[in-house]
Design a protein that fits this description.
13 strands; 349 residues; seven-stranded parallel beta sheet; 2 domains; 15 helices; alpha/beta; Rossmann fold; six-stranded parallel beta sheet
Length: 349
């Protein structure tokens, strides 16, 4: 009987955990426990998602001091994870993606000589100014088993001479989206906000380099040129920057509170197109065949770019002209598959 502990702390990780937990539950030879680091403090971003997605509550929830600096919170996170792992003595640790929780969990696992699994390994933007790029790169070089969400991730790892125990499994977040599309179609979020199907734009902005006064002002000044309603579920960090700097919001942008995951899938499925700097939304838009303008200079999700489904905004062309040109480009056929065998076989060993 193997004991595996998953370490999560942010909404995208909870989404991947939702599917992983269901898969592991089918296996009788695995005990699966979860540590929630508390990296996402906002209840709309964290607390409700376990109930909404029917995930068993975490076995451990860390209570980090919100008032500490990022470095102090990071070291506190590692200290608390270490205490739990010394008690639990798991056979394997699973970390997901690229946030501080990922690196903290990975580092403690390796210090304690515990077998480390990295899900969503090999993603690269090659922008080392992004904290996420540092986290995922270092985690990949520590991991014992690297499970990739895209085929080009395997090639990225080869370039860094990481070739052992590297396998494609597919994107757990896409597997969750597929399940939600089949089971959930409550459109109340559209009715409440008085928006028509396929007649609005979904906007999400939260990256550090976009959430400052200068860039936000430029983005909003550009977006007011669009002759369409824009629905903006606002991230807590973005909200604070807007309030602190009295940034003006154009009339065509409707700011709403963060929405739960199920309602977010409705907004994605029934919008006309998406404008985002989110990592997770990029492959979701690709799967849903919803065109997406990426408010970044680079991305780790290259398949949707090659497919003409997504495009990086150049920050120079007026955004209305840029989008009009992009919407006229035909989407190529996308292919996607999930490798259940690779996932469960290598976790069980």
């Amino acid at each position: 009987m193997k004991k595996i502990i998953s370490i999560v702390g942010t909404r995208p990780q909870f989404l991947k955990l939702a599917i992983l937990s269901k898969i592991i539950k089918k296996e009788t030879n695995i005990i699966h426990k979860v540590i929630h680091t508390g990296q996402h403090f906002d209840s709309d971003m964290s607390d409700n998602i376990f109930k909404i997605l029917n995930i068993t509550n975490p076995d451990y929830i860390l209570k980090l001091d919100k008032n500490k600096s990022n470095i102090n919170k990071f070291t506190e996170m590692m200290n608390e994870i270490e205490k739990i792992l010394l008690i639990e003595k798991p056979d394997k640790i699973i970390v997901f993606g690229d946030c501080d929780t990922t690196f903290a969990g990975a580092y403690v696992a390796k210090k304690l000589k515990i077998y480390l699994v990295h899900i969503e390994a090999g993603m690269r933007s090659y922008n080392k100014d992004m904290p996420e790029e540092i986290n995922r790169t270092i985690t990949d070089h520590m991991a014992d088993l690297l499970l990739c969400s895209t085929y080009d991730s395997i090639e990225n790892l080869k370039k860094e001479n990481i070739i052992k125990n590297v396998y494609y499994i597919g994107n757990l977040q896409i597997e969750l989206l597929k399940e939600c599309c089949e089971k959930y179609n409550n459109k109340d979020i559209l009715n409440i906000n008085n928006i028509e199907e396929n007649n609005f734009v979904l906007l999400t902005i939260h990256r550090e380099y976009n959430t400052n006064k200068e860039i936000l002002n430029k983005i909003f000044n550009d977006l007011k040129l669009l002759q369409i309603k824009i629905i903006f579920p606002i991230h807590p960090r973005t909200s604070n920057i807007i309030k602190d700097n009295n940034i003006n919001i154009p009339n065509n942008i409707i700011m709403i509170n963060p929405v739960n995951y199920l309602d977010m899938t409705i907004l994605e499925r029934y919008c006309k197109y998406i404008i985002t700097d989110s990592g997770g939304i990029q492959p979701e838009a690709w799967f849903l065949k919803k065109k997406s303008i990426i408010m970044r200079s680079e991305t780790e999700w290259n398949e949707p770019l090659d497919n003409n489904n997504n495009i990086l905004y150049d920050y120079n062309t007026p955004i209305n002209k840029f989008i009009d040109n992009f919407l006229n480009i035909e989407i190529k056929n996308n292919t996607y598959k999930f490798n259940y065998y690779n996932l469960i076989n290598y976790l069980s060993l």
